[in-house]
Specification:
4-stranded parallel β-sheet, alpha/beta, 9-stranded mixed β-sheet, 520 residues
Amino acid sequence: MDVSFGTIWEAVARSLPAEVAISEPGRDYTYAEFDERSARLATAFEAAGVGPGDKVACYQYNSAAYLETVFAAFKLGAVPVNANYRYTRDELFSLLRDADAAALVFSDELAANVENAAEHVPTLKPVVRIDAGYENFLSAHDPRPQQPRPGSDQLFMYTGGTTGRPKGVIWQLADLLHSIFVAVFRPLGVTSPPSDLDEAVKIAVSARTEGRAPVMMPAVPLMHGTGFFNSLGALLAGGRVVTMRPRGLDPRHAWETVATQRVSTIIVAGNAVCRPLVDELVTGGPHDLSSLRSVLSSGTALSDDLKRVLHERASVTITDAIASTEGGPFAFAITSSVDDLPARFFPVPATKIVTAEGNDVAPGETGVLAYSGPMPLGYYKDTAKTAATFRVIDGVRHAIPGDLAEVAADGSVRFLGRGSGVINTGGEKVHPPEVEEVLLAHPAVTDCVVLGVRDDTWGERVAAVVATPGGVTEQELRDFARRSLAGYKVPRSLVLLPELRRTPTGKLELAWAKQIVENS
């Protein structure tokens, strides 16, 4: 179907104008309001010179305004770009420059990091602040008339991946629609993607009027693919997106929101998000989970002990996905009750596990996950990285971001993590050399190594072994690193030593460093 997401949303809004599209604390927005507000923002963008192909950065907490920004960009044929709200000012400016951002919409609480943005990003035109004046700002602009847009329009998802600096993954909307089809449309009983706009609207209207449309609450940031893609899908299906209070996960508030908003699907990211929610169920309840039907997780491991608690307290299907921004989902572990535990991941038909040369691996062997289904065009302004990640095997293009997996005799796969050394901490990707560079800039640091160590909550935590003659504390080093790095990149574990153990050729003994951290 050669149609933009924005064009589908406009058509759904015409058919379901009075139905609620987005619920945030204290306010609901109907589909008609969602469309009109986004159209006013699109007019503001256009008046400032933003047009088709221009990049619109979203530096925001979860809110209706985030989705309005995306919709406004879609209306123009502009390209929404995610900006991690945990980024420091310099990290933000680096991403905006890399994306050639033409517009920036940011949450009021993040204003300090946006000061002087135009001076650091020469392509930047309008900078819109979501604050007390945002309503007046929208009212000052007439809604932009609807104009159909094609499925070749794009969005960017910036990901830490295996490189030090985030890379913009380029998705065409038609490809993304096919990629999220299983998660969005299969639960509605739809067996194939809609062939045209009329069919897409018919599916959405039928799902909403029959009470089958999802009421989806991302307990993860919309700036990440798991929450973002599924929320876009909910609106394509005539559903409702529910957001919570911003700035950190409040487990009690999350479950209260599930109850009051009658949430049917909650989106998490492995143990890092799910463990506090489960702890609240165990120690802080009781909570009304009668509306909850499904839990979706991706980005990092979700352990069986947490799945057990959820199954014991609600009639939910838990879909745990191995996926990446570059492609997938590679595999699913789906459980509907405690009887399905322990969970096992089974690859989707478009997935195979291959050697470095592209050959299939046998049971018991380890290889990398390769996906031949709908996938991005590549990385923005990085042809070399695109060629390395998106490879042709036997005449078929595959996404191979570097995730290691082992094949079992029954066809299931065991995910072994990213083979490149990148640290996956709660779904956030951290590249060790970036953190090492910052630590080495401290005058009291003579050598260091940054690595990931196993953590039951975060999957991995960032750790560092630092060589220093003294005169600096662990907290001082963390404070120093936090000036340049987002908080999730700052080492949680720090070991200070007079020197690091290296071979005669200067190579660090990584196993020794990991043992030092684990025993500290």
